[in-house]
Amino acid sequence: MQSLAIALATVGGVGYAPIASGTFGSLVALPLLPALAALRGRTPVGYGLAVVAIAAASIWAAGRAERALGGHDHSAIVIDEVAGMVMAGMFLPGTWGAAVLAFFCFRVLDVVKPWPASVFDRRIEGGIGVVGDDLVAGIYAGLVGWLLMKLV
């Protein structure tokens, strides 16, 4: 189970990128956004279940991998970026332009960590602490992206 958790948490090894592993993890998630939006259009319940499953699997894998790799929110763990991007996509249409906008908004907000993301990042241990800040940043990124699309 530990090998599976590490494989998921590092998104198949993407997290071992020598620089900007979080950015690479976010890029992996980018094509998921239009695909998930198409699912949302066909079956909202299926979409909701998929989002919950991704978040739950991310929390599980990140928690197990964090213990195995050592240290809080190890840089190789990038499944949290995938979960955050999926959260951002909840608020946006299923276009490639919206996915790219989500990517840029998410990367900025994941680095800045506005409240309460900073609380998850600094004070909560385990998988919820690793993934929670990215889920919050993803929600903020989706809302900012939605607002930008409405203004333009």
Helix content: over 70%
Figure out the total of helices: 8
Q: What's the Cα radius of gyration?
A: 14 Å
Spatial shape:
globular
Overall mean pLDDT score?
93
Q: What kind of sheet is the major sheet?
A: none
Low-confidence stretches: none
Folded structure, characterized:
- This protein is an all-alpha fold.
- It has 8 helices and no strands.
- The chain has helices spanning 2-9, 21-29, 32-42, 44-69, 79-89, 96-112, 117-123, 126-151.
- Helix 5 (79-89) packs across helix 6 (96-112) and helix 5 runs parallel beside helix 8 (126-151).
- It is globular and about 45 Å long.
- The termini are far apart.
- 42% of the residues are buried.
List key phrases describing it.
152 residues; single chain; 8 helices; mainly alpha; 76% helix
Topology at a glance:
Layout (H helix, E strand, L loop, with lengths): L1 H8 L11 H9 L2 H11 L1 H26 L9 H11 L6 H17 L4 H7 L2 H26 L1
Helix pairs in contact: 1-4, 2-5, 3-4, 4-5, 4-8, 5-6, 5-8, 6-8, 7-8
Give the structure's gist in a few sentences.
About 75% of the residues lie in helices and about 0% in strands. It is mainly alpha-helical.
